[in-house]
Design brief:
Elements (H helix, E strand, L loop, with lengths): L6 E7 L2 E9 L4 E3 L2 E2 H4 L3 H14 L5 E8 L3 H19 L4 H7 L11 H10 L7
Parallel strand pairs: 3-5
Antiparallel strand pairs: 1-2, 2-5, 3-4
Length: about 130
Amino acid sequence: MAELVQYYGTGRRKSSVARVFLRPGSGEFKVNGKAFDEHFVTEAQRIMAKSSLVLTETSGTFNITCTVKGGGVNGQAGAVRMGIARALQEFNPELRPKLKAEGFLRRDAREKRAQEVVRRALVSVQVSKR
């Protein structure tokens, strides 16, 4: 049996985590078992998720399978972008300078500020003991 050729990359943005698998193929793109256009509804999300492929001119060469968890859809699109960039780097290390210059290998670590969490607790309904 032929060995399965695939490249793996983990992407993270805010509180989203994406596991991305690139396999040589025709350009099919699935996210959590759904079609790419079904998961990423807006055009901006689609552009963000595919930007690594467009930059490296490899958009039709791989079938992409992603599993994404956590955060909102915009955060997930950024996580997929980073995962694809890391997988492409595994496929061809010469792409690293190009991906790094665009910032696709850098994590966007923004989280909710603790101050906002405390404010939400203060605004919520007061609990009565009796």
